[in-house]
Amino acid sequence: MSPAPPISSPALPSPLPATLSWAADWWELWALIAAGFLGVRLAPVLVSRAERPDALPEEVARAVERAGVPPDRVGVLGRDGRVVAYAAGLTAGHGRVFVSTGLLRELDPEGVAAVVRHEHAHLGRGHVPLRVGIPCAYAVAWAVDATLFGQAGLVAGAALAIPLAYLSVRVARWTEYDADAVAARGTGDDYREALARLAAAGHLGRTAPAGGRLRRLLAALSMHPPLGERLDRLDEPPGSRADARIPTGPRTRATRSDD
Prior knowledge:
Its cofactor is Zn(2+). It comes from Halobaculum roseum. By secondary structure, the chain is mainly alpha-helical. It is built from eleven helices and three strands, in the order αααβββαααααααα. The chain has a three-stranded mixed β-sheet. Strand 2 (85-88) and strand 3 form a beta hairpin.
């Protein structure tokens, strides 16, 4: 009588084919994420082609260069009636900062340079990929959860949307404080004076949330922290927070003591 053949355990699927198959099932998600990052990456080119920004005036360009930002990475948008300053792109190497002619009319060259340094810090310190990456990571985690747990995973992912919104707000506010610190360390009092001047002219809203509960709630959900909190942080002594580790950058007119 011949011995019975050994009982073999069922073969487990190879992780790589299973992962590729799962990824193919969620191709719309990957396409959406890729389109989001590509759109942010191409934003400087799109803005430049759509609005044809001008170069900085010579005096402002010199102040921007002293603040540690290449002047050729800054474009001026023809908007006399609006005070605008924002960073576009993913990194400092490929991104650009755009300011409006209204901002140039409102501030002196050193103030404009301080604001530009704040916006450029968003690019140089990786704030933009961080802001974009958080919802993308959430979407991927939701897809994994839905694959593993079906309908229950979908429901659990939807329930996590509120904590995600809170996390996104907290991270966005941290990036603003971080960029504030970079600008203040690179331009001295010029940055604080620029914020105060813009606030006095009504361009930055209230220094603190006001009104009823709804307004306070909306203010709490704003990506930008209240101006009062930003100014308070700028007034704190160096080393009182983690942003003390931020490099000081080039010294400028407002920070030199030998002038």
